[in-house]
C-alpha cells in the first residue's frame, strides 16, 4: 500500500490480509492453539508454501533483523516506516 499510495486517490488505506478469505471460508484459519501461540504463519506456510515461502523466509527475516537492530540502538526508524518511507 505504501508503494502505491501516491497513485491512489484514497484518503485512507486499510490492509485486511486474509480476513475476507477466512470469513468466506475460501481458506482455513489455523486452529485456536496455533493462533494463541503466534503460529498462524506456520500453518499458512505449510498450506501454501509456493506462495508464502519468500514472504516469510526473506521478508520475515529482514523484519526480525531490523527490529533487533533498532532494539540494540544500532538503527532508528522513527515514524518514517509509518509514513511509508524506508528507514535509512
Q: Indicate the proportion of strand residues.
A: under 5%
- End-to-end Cα distance: 20 Å
Average of the residue pLDDT scores: 84
The structure class reads: mainly alpha
Biggest sheet descriptor: none
Low-confidence stretches: 79-83
What global shape is seen?
extended
Order of helices and strands: HHHH
Bin the helical content: 40-55%
User: What is Rg?
Assistant: 16 Å
Structure in words:
With 88 residues, the chain is mainly α. It is 48% helix and 0% strand. It is extended, with a radius of gyration of 16 Å. The model is unreliable at 79-83 (pLDDT under 50).
In short:
This protein is mainly α and 88 residues long. The protein is built from four helices and no strands.
